[in-house]
Amino acid sequence: MKLTVTVLDTTGIQSYIFGSNRLRENIGASYLVGQVTDAWVKQILRDEPGIEDPEASIETQDAELVYAGGGNTVLLFKSAEVAISFTQKLSLKVLKEAPGINLVVAHRHDFEWGQDQLYDTVQEMMKVDLDVKKRSRIPSSPLLGLGVTQDCNSTRLVAVDRSQNHCSPADYPVSREIVAKLEAVKPANTQLKQTLQLPDGWDISLDFDDFGRSKDEMSYIAIVHIDGNSMGKRFQEFAEGKSDRDYITAMRDLSRSVEQAGKAVLQQLTQELIANWDTLKDKLDLTTQKLPFRPLVYGGDDITFVCDGRLGLTLAVRALQLFETQPIADAQPLTACAGVCIVKAHYPFARAYELSEALCQSAKKIAKRERGGDERSKAVSAIDWHIAASGLLGDLAEIRAREYRSQDGQHLEMRPLLLDADSYDWQNWPSFESVIKEFIKGDWKEKRNKVMSLREVLRQGSAATKSFLTAYRLETLPIMPGSDRRLKSPLAEQGWLDGICGYFDAIEAMDFYIPLEVSQ
């Protein structure tokens, strides 16, 4: 039986979702992206004659949805005509209802069911066909107006309406793209409430100002980007060598289990935020029962959420911990890495998200180094972050070379950190957390001025730190668990070990850390 294999992908999604500083527009954009490669695909297939169930076998109907996940959608069609008809209908729907999203489609019309390997065909289409399509795609050049026109505040395209007419309390000129995003806010909110299993009386923030930020005092938000480790390779290994039908079953099972894992993590985070509400109200300016965090991209191992800046590190670490407890179809542990960018509330959102991605990649590097390049060894989770008191000039390496080096060129930052206390000696989250808790609640609690002075002394190097301790008659800095594995470790006596400072990050993060009681 000769079939057509179709693979769908989208391009420019990051800028489409995160290109605005208005949370409502980010919410609507994320929802529309999910619709394009999943819900709308199923809807169009159901409306086609000869197709009853999108996931029913291709042997009994004209098309089959193999799987939708990891940013791609794979389908089988009994003829090229049906495949092209489907693609035309989906493209038209995207143009009308989600302007600004770029859809890329690749077809293979000569696939022999039962003879060719579907796994090999899909892998080749993703690596070759889609890549060629993306590189050869002619970028659209929208007409920027004729005669007297007004620009959209967000896209600088021609405005066609006012935002107040489309689910927005603010009033500004909007383009067709922004109209579509704002109109998607309501269904996006309904979908997220169902996903989070939000109890009655609780709501989700639609504006950064609803996160509980303390205006003129702590007006920071955190953009948290979490990505699973080696997920592409896991999907390949789980499906490789299987027959066509077994390949489809394996991809669906693994995709669904990863999808459910991401949702379960967010559900647990929601429950724990609600359980800690009294603690949060003491720290944040919360006047209503609106969660101080908002998932934007979710449903799988790739999650991005925004929250009050003081919750960014806590929620990111907790999400990584919860990921490791989720059951996955391939029976392997699910690990991930997180990048957390903490910026002023109205800092350009796209730039902050870009840095959160870079931080996630930085965490992945140390996680990979921990495995020593051996893919068979246990995968580990890791986290990296950046707190931007002002702007973000340059890439991550440039920022750290400029802002996090002592006078003698040593590293002030101990980031990125592994999540596991048993890994990589003292550079892990439990060791870091023990120090920050000591500064906040322990013997150093009443020495805040000394702690702030210590931060500047650390910039001068280990000798200046030792002199500081002597001048203030302090025996040591807080003992960091793990560092005592080194014989005669100098960390607590001079603040440094192997050219890395163990205390600067903790001092900088003191005002951006709210511990929560969590259920085990």
If you had to describe this structure to a student in words, what would you say it looks like?
- With 520 residues, this protein is of the alpha+beta class.
- Helices cover 43% and strands 16% of the residues.
- It has 17 helices and 16 strands.
- It has helices at residues 13-18, 23-47, 80-97, 118-136, 176-183, 185-196, 231-239, 244-275, 277-283, 312-323, 349-370, 396-403, 429-441, 448-458, 462-471, 491-494, 504-509; strands spanning 2-11, 63-69, 72-77, 102-112, 161-162, 173-174, 203-204, 220-228, 290-291, 293-297, 303-308, 336-344, 382-387, 417-418, 496-497, 500-501.
- The protein has a six-stranded mixed beta sheet. It has a four-stranded antiparallel beta sheet with strand order 2-3-1-4, with helices on both faces. The protein has a two-stranded antiparallel ribbon with strand order 5-6.
- β2 (63-69) and β3 (72-77) form a beta hairpin.
- The longest helix is centred in the middle third of the chain and has 32 residues, at 244-275.
- It starts with a strand and ends in an 11-residue tail after the last helix.
- The mean pLDDT is 89.
